[in-house]
Specification:
- The chain is of the alpha+beta class.
- The strands form four sheets. The chain has a six-stranded mixed beta sheet, sandwiched between helices. A five-stranded antiparallel beta sheet has the order 2-1-4-5-6, covered by helices on one side.
- It starts with a strand and ends with a helix.
Length: 363
């Protein structure tokens, strides 16, 4: 197995800085997901690792070998990488076996080695029985597996994934998330995966690297980013969140004259102006009064049945609270309820000028 090291990576397109000096270490066997909105620099970073883009500054090393630095770049075919593209990039006039063997034949490997590697890769992705079919006869999910088998047959040191599931329908995309994760764990290949889909990232990743405007906003396990967001942007991008500007004093965040949140362990860096954040599924809803901290009498303004959950929008003395109920239960508008948010679920972040501007745009 091989590690990946990205140090002070910058990439300019003309005067536009697409990647702004990021540092990233991917350990042997780790699957790291680069996540973020369009234009954040995640795909550019992946293409730099693949050797498809020259870098403007910094360095990229695969194992002990520097493959990219300013003014010098090893060609992609010499990097011992496998890449799975969004568009599959497979040959429609070839059979499954011919597609998977294509790169191996370019390497002029012996026929018995090619046959062994192709057979092993197809069995791993569950396509052994389709080896003689033309790929045009396969479903989208099966074609994506062909692309994965072709990459794995090369026995790469690093696997790179460029939004490989975005062309699949929703149900197949969900299924393939688990399949890709299972295969990567079985192989133990160091992998870098790009997506804009936060649910996909949460399922697949050992570690999520959330990017924004060419920078790394936060890096950590999926649970770290979800439960301990470092910024408002992270809390908004990863999952759903209730967010409120407030003033903090004496262990409490005041959101309005009548709505005050007690907080369990506010960070020392928090000043008076804060963003108070909690997740909709952490809101406890009751049809009778609740005893304890952070209890608010509310009225239902909206109620949506989503199958496994119900989304509620509640009005707590002029403060809107979004709640998710599981098992689901619908309520009529103007129904009186009580909502509770336990202090340990309240996240406080320092409020910045950018947060204020975002709140203004949202309003």
């Amino acid at each position: 197995m091989t590690s990946l090291s990205i140090r002070r990576l910058k990439k300019y397109y003309g005067s536009t800085l697409a990647v702004a000096g990021i540092d990233l270490e991917v350990a042997e066997g780790e699957l790291v997901v680069l996540l973020g909105p369009s234009g954040c620099g995640k795909t550019t970073t992946l293409r730099c690792v693949a050797g498809l883009e020259d870098i403007s500054d910094g360095s990229i090393a695969i194992g002990d070998h520097v493959v990219s630095e300013a003014g010098r770049s090893i060609p992609p075919e010499q990097r011992q990488i496998g890449m799975v593209f969004q568009s599959y990039a497979i040959w429609p006039h070839m059979t499954v076996t011919q597609n998977v063997a294509f790169g191996l034949k370019l390497q002029k490997l012996p026929t018995d080695v090619i046959d062994r590697r192709v057979g092993a890769a197809l069995e791993l992705v569950g396509l052994g029985v389709y080896s003689a079919r033309h790929v045009s006869q396969l479903s989208g999910g099966q074609q994506q597996r062909v692309a994965l088998a072709r990459a794995m047959a090369l026995e790469p040191r690093i696997l790179l994934f460029d939004e490989p599931l975005s062309n699949l329908d929703a149900k197949l995309r969900e299924k393939m998330r688990f399949e890709l994760r299972r295969i990567q764990q079985r192989l133990g290949i160091t992998s870098l995966y790009v997506t804009h889909d936060q649910q996909e990232a949460m399922v697949i990743a050992d570690r999520v690297v959330l990017m924004r405007d060419g920078h790394i906003e936060q890096s950590g396990s999926p649970t770290d980013l979800y439960h301990r967001p470092a910024t408002r942007f992270v809390a908004e991008f990863i999952g759903l969140a209730n967010m409120y500007p407030g003033s903090f004093s004496g262990g409490e965040a005041r959101l309005s004259d009548r709505v005050v949140l007690r907080c369990a362990a506010p960070p020392a860096s928090v000043g008076r102006d804060v963003e108070a954040i909690f997740r909709p599924e952490q809101v406890v809803v009751s049809e009778t009064p609740i005893e304890g901290p952070n209890v608010f009498e509310c009225t239902v303004t909206e109620s949506y049945f989503l199958g496994n959950t119900t989304d509620l929008v509640l009005d707590a003395s002029g403060v809107e609270i979004r709640a998710q109920l599981s098992p689901p239960k619908l309520y009529r508008p103007q129904t009186r309820l009580w909502a509770q948010i336990m202090p340990e679920h309240v996240i406080l972040l320092p409020r910045t000028a950018e947060d204020a501007a975002q709140s203004g745009r949202a309003a």
